[in-house]
Amino acid sequence: MQEYRANANKIKVRLCDKHEDQPYNVGCRDCLSLCCVNCLSGLKNCTSTGVSHQLCSLEELSSELKQDIDALTSKLGNKEGEWASLSKAASMLLSDFISETERFVHCLHKTKDEQIKELTSRYENLEAEFVKQRQAIQAKISQFIEADVNEDCSNFFIERSRIAAKLRQNHQVCTFVNAL
User: Is there a domain that residue 72 lies in?
Assistant: First the structure.
């Protein structure tokens, strides 16, 4: 790329293949075809788009191409950085994979009794943890039920007292009406 940039200013003027006495002085933005002034009248449609050529001066076309090359070079630099990051991540994953498989192979080489002891120990630890969690959940459920039942009982007694008061009031009204 640096070589291209160094040589970019040393470009020689090329003469038209059809009109050998005329230099190329315009080019198409789409298909990058070059032509001289004499070729302009006989131009066919652009081979890239199928419609008329998008003509511009060679200086303008060269400038646009240089900008495109610079943008692509920048993107390439970014992609190289991404590739380095991905390569490093892949190396780390491979290292982790190797460590895990080595641990697994080591575990396979343990004797049957060692494996049974280790599994029994893990099982006992899991069982103890399960019992703790079960007791904690039972305690929470009991607290919830007690709080709910106490509230319901309290509401029941309030409602019963209200109904009893209404019954006494209705009884007094009935007694008064019967007395009349």
Answer: yes
